[in-house]
Amino acid sequence: SQWQCDAVAICSGLHVLPNIPHIDGLGNVPTVMHSSQFKHSKQFGEGKDVLILGSGETGMDLAYLAVKSDTNSVTLSHRDGFHCGLKRAPDPIVFGQKPSLREKPNVPYDVGASSLFDTAYVHPVLRDSALAWGYWDKFAKWTAWVATGTQLGYDQWIGGVSPERYHASKLFFNKSTNAIPYISAPYRPAQPSLINKIRANIIDVPSVDTKSRTIDLAPWPQGIDSSGIIRFIKNGRPEAEHMKQVVCKPDVVILATGYTQDFLFLDASYPRLSDANVRQVWKESDPSVAFIGFVRPSFGAIPPLSELQAQLWILNLLGRLPTRLSHEDHYRLQVPKSSRIQYGVDHESYAYQLAKDMGSAPTFSDMAARGWKVAACWALSANVNPKFRMVGPWKWDGAEQVMMTEIWETITRRRGPWGHFTMSILPVLYFGTLSAVFFVFFNILDGLMLIWKLLTLDADV
């Protein structure tokens, strides 16, 4: 049967076809499976040697499950390192004082940052520059050091990202941290440096006791010989040197190597995902086909962004967008062209851009008219979707109640050095000051250019 449509939204998702890398000799391993085929820890077997390829969140989850199971050894293989970051701000021991168990845990990072001057009321020059990314890059690295003594990641003493790629603007943060203590254990210094001793006496998040179990970290396989022994790439990293001393002959290999997208249901007349050049949703010359949910935030979630994408697309179809959409790239991750994943975005910047496009981003005056608490919640909260239902074409009467309850709690629960200070006060002061400087400078520059134009115009006359 056929169904004639005026427009089509493609929502099949990023995770469709398992991505299977080519590795010479992979068939020489007794059991090989993609992570999509893994359903239960029994699939590791008993007393088996397990190799997991891929150091993303799925790979980390599988490595942790494997090391907690009845396995003989667990090895995790990576291509170019990773940065492990916590899902939520930690509750450290401060001057020997442990956090109260009666308190609710600290807020998740993806709702822990203030939007004022980060995305709202930020000068376009600052928004498009490296200065904005620079703050959050320093935040990611230095908060990891303050908590655990290493800048590679949270309690991560090995497997760092290569220097040319190690920047917040280029990373997908790995928020699966349970395996990290088992990976770091062989590399964690037996005798901490003096500065780390001082740090730990002031503030520290203690390491997990792995009870002598470890996960071997290894480079990517170069190949597998006929007897099933892995030859790893020799890249000079400490883990590569360690694996030279280890015979890695896995009984089980699990490919935690992600997915690719498939659009076999679209014939050649339809645009493809790579053609979606308007906010990564639709092709400028054919807005009748939208790709919803085909972006991946470095820190955040796909579903809230999908909702905003759908709202924007529908308004465009109805001809109800307040202004013509200009080309913007500031929200895109700056990944290398060789990277398999080219659809990365910064959650906060992308969400705010979509809201601005729709006329759904509230102004300070909009919120101040509703009282100080509403204005404070608007300024100090992250770019959550209810914020963009308070005004504009998708206005919902219940949005303010959600903001004043659920979202307000994400503000009041922030505590410790990773709470109001680094996620609210510092960025508001830093970004606010820079934006003010840019606004003053460019207004003066515009005034001088206008005067010069008038003077030269008089001279020509």
Automatic annotation (TrEMBL):
Keywords: FAD, Flavoprotein, Membrane, Monooxygenase, NADP, Oxidoreductase, Transmembrane, Transmembrane helix. The keyword Nucleus does not apply. It comes from the Eukaryota. SUPFAM superfamilies: FAD/NAD(P)-binding domain. The chain crosses the membrane at residues 421-445. It holds the Pfam family FMO-like. GO terms for molecular function: flavin adenine dinucleotide binding; N,N-dimethylaniline monooxygenase activity; NADP binding. Belongs to the FMO family. This is Dimethylaniline monooxygenase [N-oxide-forming] 2.
